[in-house]
Specification:
7-stranded parallel beta sheet, globular, alpha/beta, about 15% strand
């Protein structure tokens, strides 16, 4: 790699964004940060900007604009506010790669803007493809904008397919940790608290994605994302519980051979691979010791205890705007659960009912996706009120 790659990090104060900056910190000769964005975390954004000196930052919460501007503008860093600014700035000519690490549906608009500008997309926001996969992938092809996966599972699949060359796969084995309730009885899961659901056994993530892991909706989202990224259908994706989270996913071929990508749970590895591809750079992380590992185990997922996984497969089979409605209802229900307004199994119940109420659109436009999201989110919020016990 002879020239620096110039990077925009959308959601730089979140878990993925912070780890991406650690990758940059380890390879300052190879990466240059051009844009950082945050929603509310003004103090963290200021600290990151003072360290990495981007050309611009965006604080999406306009009420915190002046706080950020007072510190950074004297340093020659341009400061903007609002999501419209994010969408505009990702189009800048000096940006090569846009890492989208925003939470939820909010990642769709700036990702679309970056795609239309022909940027390389390092995608860490799975909801972008869950909600608008058909629209996003059409635009990516039209504007010749590569989409590189950052999720550990999709990066693993991507790496296996690179190793396989032109050989077509017959099945993708998408691994899941099983979350904090993997061994719990259904009756105990029904009484799970927010604090218990946030205790992920392997990964350190934001609150929303951690709850999605506890319900296994996150794995359903990853199945949908894999369908779009690797041009396949849900019938070719097998979910397998792998509690150690060492095998990040596997790909099977016609001769029965299975390729896997392994590593200790550390999101910096797939982030770095997306930013540096095709090179593999050094990384200050824990390396595998197979004798120390001892054994790796696998289980089938239990749809009865984790119905969100089944809802995701159903939504993808139906297609159109239904996955978008499912995503919106999940976003509202998870937020309500994090506020202790509903119970754990209210989440799949609300998603199921809101998805069933959605008018089907077989080939949605971007406007259809936005409208479906808004309508399903409102319906889910209303049901969250009904579900209070």
């Amino acid at each position: 790699m002879t020239n620096k790659r110039h990077i925009a990090i959308l959601g730089s104060t979140g878990s993925i964004g912070r780890q991406a900056l650690d990758v940059v910190r380890q390879h300052k000769d190879m990466f240059e940060v051009e844009l950082l964005t945050a929603n509310n975390s003004s103090e963290k954004l200021i600290g990151q900007a003072l360290e990495f000196n981007p050309g611009a930052v965006v604080i999406c919460n306009g009420e915190k604009y002046q706080e950020v501007a007072d510190v950074l503008q004297p340093q020659g860093i341009k400061v903007f506010a609002g999501m419209d600014s994010v969408c505009s700035l990702v189009e800048a000519e000096g940006i090569d790669i846009v890492l989208t690490a925003l939470v939820g549906f909010s990642g769709l608009r700036p990702t679309v803007a970056a795609i239309k500008a022909g940027k390389i997309i390092a995608l860490a926001n799975k909801e972008t493809l869950v909600a608008g996969g058909s629209v996003v992938m059409r635009l990516a092809e039209k504007y010749n904008a590569p989409i590189l996966p950052v999720d550990s599972e999709h990066s693993a699949i991507f790496q296996c397919l690179l190793a396989a060359g032109d050989n077509d796969f017959t099945k993708i084995h998408l691994t899941a940790s099983g979350g904090p309730f993997r061994t719990w009885e259904k009756s105990r899961i029904a009484e799970a608290t927010r604090k218990e659901a946030l205790q992920h056994p392997q990964w350190t993530m934001g609150a929303k994605i951690t709850i999605d892991s506890a319900t296994m909706m996150n794995k359903g989202f990853e199945m949908i994302e894999a369908c779009w990224l690797f041009h396949t259908g849900p019938e070719k994706i097998n979910i397998v519980i792998h509690p150690q989270s060492i095998i990040h996913s596997m790909v099977e071929f016609a001769d029965g051979a299975v390729l896997a990508q392994l590593g200790h749970p550390d999101m910096r590895e797939p982030i770095q691979f997306a930013l540096s591809i095709p090179q593999r750079l050094s990384l200050d992380n824990r390396k595998l010791d197979f004798a120390e590992l001892g054994s790796l185990t696998f289980e089938k997922p239990d749809i009865d205890r984790f119905p969100c996984l089944g809802l995701a497969f159903d939504a993808m089979r139906k297609g159109g705007n239904i996955p978008c409605a499912m995503n919106a209802a999940n976003e509202a229900a998870v937020a309500a659960f994090l506020e202790d307004r509903i119970r754990f199994y209210d989440i799949p119940d609300i998603i199921s009912k809101c998805t069933a109420e959605t008018g089907f659109i077989a080939e949605p436009t971007l406007e259809d996706i936005i409208a479906t999201n808004d309508e399903a989110f409102i319906r889910a919020k209303e049901r969250c009120g009904i579900a209070i016990r």
